[in-house]
Amino acid sequence: MSDPTSGSLVTTPPPEQPGVVGDTAPVGAGLPETKRDQPRGLLGDAWYDLRRKPLFWISAGLIALFVVMAAFPFFFTSGSPNDPVGTGLSRSLEGPSGDAWFGTDILGRDIFARTIYGARASIIVAVAATLGTVLLGASVGVLAGFRGGWVDALLSRIADVFFGIPFVLGAIVILFTFNPEGAGSNEWKIMGLVILALCLLSWPVAMRIMRSSILAAKNADYVVAARALGASNSRIIFKHLIPNCLAPVLVYATILIGAYIGAEATLSFLGVGLQSPVVSWGVMISDSQQYIRVAPYWLLFPSAFLVTAVLSFVMLGEAVREALDPKLR
Amino acid sequence: MSNVYVADQPSAAREGRPSGRLLEVEDLRVEFRTRDGVAKVINGVNYHVDAGETLAVLGESGSGKSVTAQTIMGILDTPPGFVTGGEIRFHGKDMLKMSAEERRRIRGEGIAMVFQDALSALNPVFTVGFQIAEQFRVRRGMSRRDAKIRAAEMLDQVKIPNAKQRVNEYPHQFSGGMRQRVMIAMSLALDPEVLIADEPTTALDVTVQAQIMDLLGELQRERQMGLILITHDLGVVADVADRIAVMYAGRIVEEANVYELYAKPAHPYTIGLLESIPRIDEKGQQLRTIRGLPPSLLKIPSGCPFHPRCPMAQPVCPEKLPPLLQLGPTRASACHFAEELVNRD
């Protein structure tokens, strides 16, 4: 940061050129200044900032690719995720080749096709569960932090109860209760249940993060000042508290997406999550691990997709967080 | 002195008689219920401010000057703070009896406040233009574009150079003095009738302090606002204030117009304050201070709360609480010996 006092007398240099000294700024600022005349809110400014970040474009491009993959897997592969490539098991556990790019698994199925088709379940579960967790946790956290008193005490204790349930055990109980063995395996029903289980068992963390940020921000001078200028409670929550408390939850959410793809795999591995014939990266990873020595590519390709997807979400979260923090502009 | 009478006559005013005062605080009492006991922070404060007038409220830390302001604004932390008595009348209407919604509407448009530390009092994630414009959009129903133009005008009024560009900047991009100007622009956006400035220059360096005080004075004259200036800096108030109220331990101990107060303080505490200003013609001498510490509000001394530190304390002082005695048309003092102090040569 250049000397802040000099900024009061001259136009502050545009943020893209932090090295520019004040007196040359008007020249450099000519073009952006006309654009910046548009009235914009927080999101507008964040978008203005995001557009010039390669990190954002790379991650957003990858995520868009994964989303298209999840929606229209048949654009990417002509293979079927469940039928063997050759006749019967004739081409079981083959390495990558011309017609099966990522090789075949123990049942002779095309790993490339399965990886493409697996994106749907993995991404839907991870994104929906993350959204659910963050929305539930953050709204309870805002309520608890802002109201305080007995509301806070009650909500915090409820969160503690859910926090105390061991994750795997809790998920098994939820999935078994609502989808007993032999009840048939409707793909969407199981996915919904997995999402529900993940949300129910993880929201207390998001709630605690949000609550503590709100508690810290609630007594900040700008909130008191807003109140002194006659701002209503809802305005204070939505305009002052949430924009200032968003960053930690956002970071948590991006990490959560990766964790949830893994958690979905764990549940599949335990036999309570998604089951064959539904394909997901988690199902593939858990299927492949017994064959890791003879067919490492079976583990490698779905894992690579998973890692790339998680990385894209983390990068996107990071870019968005930076864009939302004016001090980094 | 012939015209000495006790100033506390609340009954007459309480009959709903409109006193014509813009903002009037009467016998306000606030206590903080803490784990260590009840701290009586404000013990019957009376003051008023009229349109176009500047009242400076002077006092040490913990004298209750800021809490009075917070109570007027309705931003007192409850709990621990509770208003236990008194009235705050704005245009003759008691604000403490209004509904929360009525009070909220007065904030910003009727009474606004400038905070001490402008950096923390501005929302860090929005541009200053957006924050000022928001008030026009929400309270005046202006469009985004018009509101932004008005926001730039406000910044121009508080003499921020290049206001049109700076309206798009964030609070952290402003220097301390400029930030305080933004804060003032924000408070004045809705044209309040009373502005409370809570130590507006404490966080600034001396040269900037003078600029901000001049600006406040100028804006106050232009708009004919009532200005309540809360400060502990005697130097700051001399030029700007019309009247000064000195607070100690949650009470007004002396009230006078500026000239009277500086020329002939009528309370030993005020005398102590004035003597502890460093003076250029007393070079090499030890700086005079008021001995002792401000009293703990959990345990305010009996009688006159200033008696343990008072150089003129007499046997009567720990016994009896001196009432605020009117000594003249514009001045009052809460000291048993106020008359002697005023009449000394």
UniProtKB/TrEMBL annotation, chain A:
Compositional bias of type Polar residues: which residue ranges? Answer: 1-11
Localization recorded for this chain is: Cell membrane
Keyword Membrane belongs to the record? yes
Q: Cite the ABC transmembrane type-1 domain residue spans from the record.
A: 119-317
- What membrane topology term does the record carry? Multi-pass membrane protein
Q: Which Gene3D superfamilies match?
A: MetI-like
Name the chain's protein: ABC transporter permease
Q: Which family does it belong to?
A: Belongs to the binding-protein-dependent transport system permease family.
**PROSITE patterns per record:** ABC_TM1
Which portions of the sequence form the region Disordered?
Answer: 1-36
Q: Which domain of life is it from?
A: Bacteria
**Which CDD domains does this chain map to?**
TM_PBP2 (cd06261)
Question: Could you list the residue ranges that cross the membrane?
Answer: 55-76, 123-146, 158-178, 190-210, 241-261, 297-316
Q: What is its main location?
A: membrane
Q: What does the UniProt keyword field contain?
A: Cell membrane, Membrane, Transmembrane, Transmembrane helix, Transport
